[in-house]
Structures are given as C-alpha cells and as structure tokens.
Design a protein that fits this description.
- 61% of the residues lie in helices and 9% in strands.
- The protein contains 3 helices and 2 strands.
- The chain is elongated.
- It starts with a helix and ends with a helix.
Length: 96
C-alpha cells in the first residue's frame, strides 16, 4: 500500500517538474521544453517524464537518479532513430 503512495508522489513530482518554475507560460508552449532533437524532431521533457513514470510503474523499487534520467533519454533517442529509420524504409518502398 505504501508503494502505491510513493509511486503516486514520484509521478506527481515528475509531472510537475519537481517544483521548478515554468520557463514559459503554459499557453505559449503546449509540448513543454525540448530536451533533445533527433534529425530535427524534438523530444520534450514530458516525453522523458512519461517514459520514466512507465518504467517506475513496472519497477516501483527503481531509484530515479540523474544517471537513470540520462539512460532513459538515450533510450528515447534510440527509439526515435529506429522509428525514423522504419518510416524512411516504408516511404522508399511506396515510392519504388
């Protein structure tokens, strides 16, 4: 039962940005802050937060440290590269 409360608390902190003030008004930026770009396609901080929350749901004992966030960001970048590659392959098949 306590793990559920811990999970909810960590998830809330991730979603709210751990209490840091917003860089821009919410109305000005709908997607959030860009933390990486993959071939011109942005990865937003909300993408990383969601990915970490899902990973934490699978493993509630996981510790979220800067290294964990860095590893998860690298995973998101790798996944985006794979998706872009598959999309490029599919568009080449249609053109031929």
């Amino acid at each position: 039962m306590i793990m559920r409360y811990v999970f909810a608390l960590v998830l809330a902190l991730l979603i709210t940005g751990c209490g840091r003030p917003a860089e821009k008004p919410a109305s000005a930026v709908s997607e959030g802050r860009i933390i990486a770009t993959v071939n011109g396609e942005p990865i937003f901080d909300k993408d990383l937060k969601l990915s970490l929350a899902l990973k934490l749901k699978d493993d509630p004992s996981m510790q979220i440290k800067p290294s964990t966030m860095s590893e998860q960001l690298q995973t998101l970048i790798d996944e985006r590269l794979k998706l872009q590659s598959k999309t490029r392959e599919n568009s080449e098949i249609v053109i031929k």
